[in-house]
Amino acid sequence: MISVIGIGDFCCLIADRLSKYPQYNILTISTNDSENTNHIKLKNYETAEQYEQNCPDIKKNIKSLKNDVSIFLDGSEPIAGIILALGEQINNKNINVYYIRSDTVLMSQLEKKQDKICFSVLQEYARSGLFNKICLIDKLKIEAILGEVPLVRYDDEISNLISSTVHMCNVYENSKPILDNMTQTDLLNRICTIGIGDLFGGQTKWFYDLANAGELMNYYAINKTTLEGDPKLLQKIKKQIKNEQNDLKRVMFGVYETNYAENFVYCVARTKIVQQPTGT
């Protein structure tokens, strides 16, 4: 079981999407009302500093706070200012931060400044070990993957893709593969992103353009029909792994049997290098 905390309206939407899976318990925090029964509504403040000073006590809202806690936030929003005070309340937990970057074209100058600061500071916190990891996700990359989306469905479509991919990566990270080459990951590689791969050699659709990736992990979710009927499956996987390897990268993989009609590849890239914000 993973405890999920969504901060701000859009990230609350991601948390709500994850609530349909039994592996999570959910807490949402925003300045608006919510249908979620485990929700904290905060007053509106103008600055991140004011939100930090008025950070809520979450221990009474998540009575059975699990050892693994995933926090979703958009660093450009002032409400993201509660993150460090929130982290202090749960500093004995394994905290994974999912940083959602919005389009800087739509940000005010103040939001751009806050995003730039928050983006850098939280990565440094992860590198220091205060967070287990920080996963970077760029809304512009999600837009490109989805293609044209009607405006009224924009938030729903983007939150759906993020939540489902995060969930599947969590599932396979905690499942036993039928074949793998996995070894212990480098504990210094705490900055990461996720993506959707292609079993037939296409380009991985990454959720963030991560520079200087030191490790790649591919989770191959393969249905029983393909596992039993495709004699070239292993060769396809090995070819893909070989194409992704270079002197700077370690590429790992796991193959998992599924009941899905289609086959999927979920990918994780990790680095120890702090990423620089783009579009600022």
State the main characteristics:
280 residues, alpha/beta, twelve-stranded mixed sheet, 32% helix
Describe what you observe in this structure.
- With 280 residues, the chain is an alpha/beta fold.
- The chain has eight helices and twelve strands.
- Strands 1, 2, 3, 4, 5, 6, 7, 8, 9, 10, 11 and 12 form a twelve-stranded mixed beta sheet that branches.
- A hairpin with an 8-residue loop joins β8 and β9.
- The longest helix is centred in the middle third of the chain and has 20 residues.
Low-confidence runs of at least 5 consecutive residues: none
Could you tell me the number of beta strands? 12
The run of helices and strands is: EHEEHEHEHEHHEEEEHHEE
Give the count of helical stretches.
Answer: 8
Which class best fits the helix and strand makeup?
alpha/beta
Radius of gyration: 19 Å
Helical content class:
25-40%
Q: Give the overall shape.
A: globular
**Overall pLDDT level:** 92
- Beta fraction of the residues? 25-35%
Distance between the termini: 37 Å
The biggest beta sheet is recorded as: 12 strands, mixed
